Amino acid sequence: MTSDLNTETIVEMTQEVWTALLADDGHLRPGGHGGGAMAASISISGVWNGTACLTCSEPAARHAAAVMFGMSQAEITDEEVHDAIGELINVVGGNIKGILPGPTELSLPTVHADEPFAVPTDLELGWEVNFTWLDEPVGVTVWTGQVDPAFA
Amino acid sequence: MKALVVDDSRSMRTIVSRILRGVGVEEIVQAENGQEAIQVLETGGIPDIALVDWHMPIMNGYEFVCAARKVPEWRPMTIMMVTTENEHGQIVKALAAGATEYLIKPFTPDALVDKLSLLGLNPLTGALS
To answer: Residue A56's beta-bridge partner residues?
Structure first.
């Protein structure tokens, strides 16, 4: 029930998002150790259930926000950083949803600003893809859950 | 030309607005959900085009399309969905409700300009023909 979702497609989709929204030309590379203090997640529910989480370092998030808002990193506020990583996981999550069996619904993104992303106990790790972007860690993790009985 | 950009993400509203300004769109108004967009239409005049996200709190983009198309005075407004929502059934539903065009995120600036050109935007003047 996971269609074409795999590590390779997650890499391709994330790089596509970086290219489109951050005008990145190949600097987001698979590898590294992931991690980072910033996290944003989004849930997919329906025929397939799960959560996608974007993690990155604070400098990576701030740089992304600066590009998206067209401002210098010094001008960017914490609120703008949170908005930016929320939109990045929104688009990554939407693309993940697009290759899953449907129908499914996408939640609004949640930015985990004050405390780390807590994995819901009913989900298990599906894929964890680490990147480096301009020497900073970026990661996309997909957690999968049980199919809602209403859709089984 | 006047455009209304509706998205709960301020970064995405900024990106879309920047692209619109780049093709000469002179007046850009922003709203962060469908309800706020309705208020803009009620008080600020009718834009030539509204670029609308789907997934937003309070009133989502689909609900906005349905509400906007019920008002005869607003019918000349072109509505382009700009969204991560990519299920075929949902796209058909939005178009059936009155959306004029549909662009799936992520998109490049060129992709948005191409869609605008299909709708008659002159990228040199920012005017809709």
So the answer is: A38, A138
Distances (CA, A) of B62 to A49, A103, B101, B122: 23, 16, 13, 27
Could B87 and A103 be called an inter-chain contact, meaning their C-beta atoms sit closer than 8 Å? yes
B19: Cβ contacts below 8 Å, ≥ 6 apart: B109, B112, B113
How much is the pTM?
A: 0.93
Distance separating alpha carbons of residues A54 and A109, to the nearest angstrom: 10
Q: What's at B81, amino acid-wise? A: M
**Letter for the amino acid at A97?**
K
Residue A98: which of B55, B57, B86 has the nearest Cβ? Answer: B86
Q: Quote the ipTM score.
A: 0.92
**Strand-pair category, A50-56 with A28-30:** unpaired
Nearest-CA distance from B12 to chain A in Å? 7
Q: CA angle, corner A80, sides to A118 and B19, nearest 5?
A: 125
